Amino acid sequence: MIIIQLKPKKEESLKRFHPWVFSGAIQKIEGKPAEGDLVEVLDNQRNFLAIGHYQIGSIAVRVVSFDKLDVDDSFWSRKIQLAYAMRVSLGLVDPKKNNTYRLVHGEGDSLPGLIVDVYDETAVMQAHSVGMHETREILAKAIVENVPQVKHVYYKSATTLPFNAPITPEDGYLIGEETPSLSAIENGLEFHVDWLRGQKTGFFVDQRENRSLLERYSKGKSVLNMFCYTGGFSVYALRGGAEVVHSVDSSTKAIALTDKNVELNYPNDSRHKSFDEDAFKYLNNLHTFEQKYDLIILDPPAFAKHREALRNALKGYKRLNAKAFEQIKPGGIVFTFSCSQVVSKEQFRLAVFSAAAESKRNVRILHQLSQPADHPINIYHPEGEYLKGLVLWVE
Ligand code: SAH
């Protein structure tokens, strides 16, 4: 195996089990690793630290093991087994009530660069590193062998792998085939998930618990689900007994998907309407009291994907939240989220705080939300906390 020796004192973070080696920490590389190769990382005194996948870029190694052992098929199989056992133990695996969950959440499951979401009999796998891309066949086999429900593994990495990597990934089934009718069930609700054409792996599994909380507050309310995508929050609001549910998204496809999912659970339900429109435009056009809502969900796409975009992203969050505070009825509730990894919990809170002050409404924090247990945060890698939410009471 190729050896990477670190500069003096650069082993500290690895000793605290942080799973990345930055290129600036490297003193020498013995041999010529190709991107994706397994490498052994040593400290300056040549003591073993970790084994990981080599990458080109500022993160040079993503650690897969802090123990010196063989990274063979059974190594990957054990990792998948552990990830699955945790989901079972958390009560997330229930073919009748909940067959939709995240099986592998990158660093959170000590598998940096790998995401796997399970929808009934299909696992959708996404590689974010060349190392995981090259391990895809072994991983797919390990998934089918260790997760009893899964019979098909779809690989979807054409857009997630580093764009300059010397590979041409193709999306497709590694094991099994397209299933004719799929029913992804989340907390007893059914969803049509289109991993071939949809965003990410086809569904935002990470909002499951937050949708449940919304359901609890929906009874008798008029609900606006902004940035609805698959209509997840809308369907939960309908089950919670909302009087009116309006879903808004600027993508025609998302609106079609929302309508389909509402229809699947609540056929011909006149309480629901969807609007193919821009969020800001929609919020600006609520003029009369009757047009306003008791409950507004703001779950926009990541406003900042890179650090450089941070300032504008924070402005965007402020502007959006200010609009919601302006438009919500007295005694209303706002569920507001940010899924941008580069926006910290404090920064997001500050943006929402500024929006509240600007709207001159009296706002209280009822809940502070995060990602669910199947999106665990590696305690040594706090960067893994990406989903932030606030539930606010607007007097
Ligand atoms: N709340 C969803 C996930 C939202 S993903 C869920 O629970 O699954 C973000 C969505 O925002 C996408 O569907 C995208 O089409 C939509 N979107 C992006 N920009 C928008 C805009 N300016 N106005 C309305 N919708 C927008």
The neighbouring-strand order within the major sheet is: 16-15-14-17-18-20-19
Give the number of DSSP strands: 20
Low-confidence stretches: none
Indicate the overall shape.
globular
Radius of gyration: 22 Å
Descriptive overview:
The chain has 395 residues and is an alpha/beta fold. It folds into 3 domains: 2-65, PUA domain (Archaeosine Trna-guanine Transglycosylase, Chain: A, domain 4), CATH 2.30.130; 73-186, 2-Layer Sandwich (Transcription Regulator spoIIAA), CATH 3.30.750; 204-394, Rossmann fold, CATH 3.40.50.150. 27% of the residues lie in helices and 28% in strands. The strands form 4 sheets. The protein has a 7-stranded mixed β-sheet with strand order 16-15-14-17-18-20-19, sandwiched between helices. It has a 6-stranded mixed β-sheet with strand order 2-6-5-4-1-3. The protein has a 5-stranded mixed β-sheet with strand order 7-8-9-10-11. It is globular, with a radius of gyration of 22 Å. It starts with a strand and ends with a strand. The model has no long low-confidence stretch (mean pLDDT 95). It binds S-adenosyl-L-homocysteine.
Summarize this entry quickly.
By secondary structure, the protein is an alpha/beta fold.
Comma- or semicolon-separated keywords:
395 residues; alpha/beta; Transcription Regulator spoIIAA; 3 domains; seven-stranded mixed β-sheet; six-stranded mixed β-sheet; 27% helix
Could you outline the blueprint of secondary structure elements for this entry?
Blueprint: E1 2-6, H1 12-15, E2 20-22, E3 26-30, E4 38-42, E5 48-54, E6 59-65, H2 73-89, E7 100-105, E8 114-119, E9 122-127, H3 130-134, H4 136-146, E10 152-155, E11 172-175, E12 184-186, E13 189-191, H5 208-217, E14 222-226, H6 232-239, E15 244-249, H7 252-265, E16 272-276, H8 279-284, E17 293-298, H9 310-327, E18 328-338, H10 345-359, E19 363-369, E20 388-394
Parallel strand pairs: 1-4, 9-10, 14-15, 14-17, 15-16, 17-18
Antiparallel strand pairs: 1-3, 2-6, 4-5, 5-6, 7-8, 8-9, 10-11, 12-13, 18-20, 19-20
Helix pairs in contact: 2-4, 5-6, 9-10
This protein binds S-adenosyl-L-homocysteine.
Residues 204, 207, 227-230, 232-233, 248-251, 254, 278-279, 299-301 line the site of S-adenosyl-L-homocysteine.
